[in-house]
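This section describes the prediction task in plain terms. A model, or a person checking by hand, is given the sequence of a single protein chain and must write out its three-dimensional structure as a string of tokens. No templates, partner chains or ligands are provided. The sample shown here is typical of the held-out split.
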Amino acid sequence: MPLKGRVALVAGATRGAGRGIAVELGATGATVYVTGRTTRDQQSEYGRPETIEETAELVSSAGGTGIAIQVDHLVSEQVEDLVGRIRADQGRLDILVNDIWGGEKLFEWNKPVWAHDLQNGLRLLRLGIDTHLITAHHALPLMIERPGGLLVEVTDGTADYNARNYRQSPFYDLAKVAATRMAWAHAKDLQPHGATAVSITPGWLRSEMMLDTFKVTEANWRDATAMVPHFVISETPRFIGRAVAALAGDPDRTRWNGQSLSSGQLARVYGVTDLDGSCPDAWRYLDEVQDVDKPADATGYR
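The expected answer:
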């Protein structure tokens, strides 16, 4: 339990990567505050069944202590109150994971800025950028009170991949590149305080929403490859969770400060695997197989 006694905040932990990260931090002993907008009593505009209470229970079942708090991270006062509660209850914050998103239903693929719904695009940017900055503004002062803190900005795509590839929507492209740049900038400010900031991306994530889209479950996810063959490289949310937990437990994690990382990259370094024992290397697969129109084949990539 290398993170026993550590306190983490996973902002945006209702589902997907945020839930996977929260659970794996719990599995290594951490006390994990999980936030989001959907509770058992109130749903966000997503209309999804997952709740922050479920995530907190999964954290506790994994061996940690899960604490669910409903927060809209666009509302500065709510985030300020959240950090005040963590300070009062724990007196410390060791790990901040910014996984706030909420833009899946807002972006429109393959539409230039003049054809994209403007209000949806601007809302997407607020959800993907403003929320992260608001949360960092309020939470990092508590984190830097002790040396060794870790900030993780979750995004989609490595810095190298996103620099070479248009992410099919100017709004989505900007939101995901911004998270990487934020981590790089925070790293400059955090380094004098003995803290580390990184960005990290999962590969093709088998989130709850993705499984529902393909009408499969985690148990039979491979059936979706008949419709989308490259889904063969996909990974569970727990894979990025294990990568983040390993990073948080690394006493030499400052070597990563400011870097853009991926779940597959860290998994190879730290020797962690996905739930099925494999180690998907999605971003190398995209470069070498999917994006050059080779037939789907994950041999050698997981």
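For orientation: The chain has one domain: 7-215+236-282.
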